[in-house]
Design brief:
Blueprint lengths: L2 H7 L3 H12 L15 E3 L5 E3 L5 E2 L14 H12 L5 H6 L13
Antiparallel strand pairs: 1-2, 2-3
Length: about 110
C-alpha cells in the first residue's frame, strides 16, 4: 500500500473499519459464521444476530482482527509498520497501546 492510500485509510476509525471489512465479506454481504444464513438482523451495539440459529456476532468475530482488542486504525498502523519492517517492540513501547497477548495463534 502506498503512503497516500494508507493516509486516506487511517484518517478515521470509520474509513479504516470500512477498508478492513472489504477483506472480510465478499461484496459486503454478511452471513452467519455458524450456519451461513444471510437473514440477519442488526442489534443496537453494531452486532448482528442470525435469524435461523440465533448466533450473535459482529463483523470481526472469529478473525484475527478481533483477538487483541485493537481498533481498525491501530491494526492498519501495525500492518504498515510490519510492511516497513519495524521491530515489533519499538511501536509498543512508544505508543500508549496495551500489550495484550493473543489467546490463540493468528494464522
Amino acid at each position: 500500500m502506498d503512503l497516500k492510500t494508507y493516509e486516506s485509510q487511517v484518517k478515521s476509525e470509520t474509513t479504516a473499519r470500512r477498508y478492513l471489512l472489504g477483506f472480510c465479506w465478499k461484496n459486503h454481504q454478511r452471513y452467519c459464521p455458524r450456519c451461513r444464513n444471510r437473514k440477519l438482523y442488526r442489534l443496537k451495539d453494531d452486532r448482528r444476530r442470525c435469524n435461523r440459529c440465533g448466533y450473535t456476532f459482529h463483523d470481526f468475530s472469529g478473525r484475527w482482527l478481533n483477538e487483541c482488542g485493537l481498533s481498525a486504525d491501530q491494526w492498519l498502523r501495525l500492518i504498515k509498520l510490519f510492511e516497513l519492517e519495524v521491530a515489533p517492540l519499538k511501536p509498543a513501547s512508544s505508543w500508549e497501546w496495551p500489550i495484550i497477548p493473543c489467546t490463540r495463534p493468528c494464522v
